[in-house]
Specification:
Elements lengths: L17 E3 L6 E3 L4 E6 L3 H4 L4 H4 L5 H4 L2 H14 L2 E7 L10 H4 L11 E2 L2 E2 L22 E4 L10 H7 L4 E7 L1 H14 L3 E10 L3 H16 L3 E3 L1 H10 L1
Parallel strand pairs: 3-4, 3-8, 4-7, 8-9, 9-10
Antiparallel strand pairs: 1-2, 5-6
Helix pairs in contact: 4-9, 7-8
């Protein structure tokens, strides 16, 4: 369901509550109709010894986004903003995992295989869960998603519609995969997306840069790119 078709939808006020410094240009948003979405900050992706590191990735590159995310989450909670967390993973029987996805990679490192923090990308396993530093507080929704995008086969769209959300502040990992996919899904559903560059990360710095460039290109074809400090300032003053 898109914002425009959601029950109770009203168009954003002509005098928005806050202006966020962003690229390709500052954006004015109603913060009361804005949600913070934290994508896939999971132990298997970020922690030493997890699945991501087992694949040969430098997880310290993702760790750089943790503190900026923590600061933005704290500001959002203080303002009473909706904070949504996502986790990528599958049911234990893999019934929601397409064979083409499961078959990729080395046989001993595929989805569902035993990993250093339990079965890889399986819901309920230790590695599937969110890192302690960014763990949701009671009442914050957790969207368990079987795909890269947070809208596919989940209740996120309905949740946002029920809350009257029109704008998304997007953080998480990885920039070029799940963050980009979610932003593109959201854009097609009519949401204004503001991606916080320092709150996102990739194992590959060049992919991080390219992912952000694609979002803000051509006048903001998929959304806007800002950072934790401008957003925190807007929350405090808007």
């Amino acid at each position: 369901m898109t914002p425009a078709s959601a029950p109770g939808f009203r168009r954003q006020s002509s005098v928005p509550a806050a202006v966020i410094d962003a690229e390709p240009e500052p954006i004015a948003v109603d913060l009361d109709r804005t949600a913070l979405v934290i994508i896939d900050m999971q132990r298997d992706f970020l922690e030493p010894g997890g699945f991501g590191e087992t694949l040969g990735n430098d997880v310290s590159r993702l760790a750089a986004a943790v503190e900026p995310c923590r600061a933005v989450i704290e500001a959002a909670r203080n303002r009473g903003m909706l904070v949504v967390h996502t986790r990528e993973g599958h049911l234990p029987d893999l019934s929601d995992a397409p064979p083409a996805k499961v078959e990729r990679g080395q046989p001993n490192l595929r989805i569902g295989a035993p990993g250093p923090m339990g079965r890889i990308l399986i819901r309920g396993e230790p590695g599937h869960d969110i890192i302690p530093a960014l763990y949701p507080v009671p009442g914050e929704p957790i969207i368990d998603k079987p795909g890269k995008g947070a809208f596919y086969a989940t209740g996120l769209g309905q949740l946002l519609a029920d809350k009257g959300i029109e704008n998304l502040l997007v953080c998480g990992v990885t920039t070029e995969v799940c963050v980009n996919t979610t932003v593109r899904e959201a854009n097609d559903r009519g949401y204004r997306c503001i991606v916080l560059a320092d709150c996102c990360a990739s194992y590959f710095p060049e992919f991080h840069a390219a992912g952000l460039a694609m979002i803000k290109a051509q006048g903001g074809i998929f959304g806007w790119v800002s950072g934790s400090k401008p957003v925190i300032t807007a929350m405090a003053t808007g």
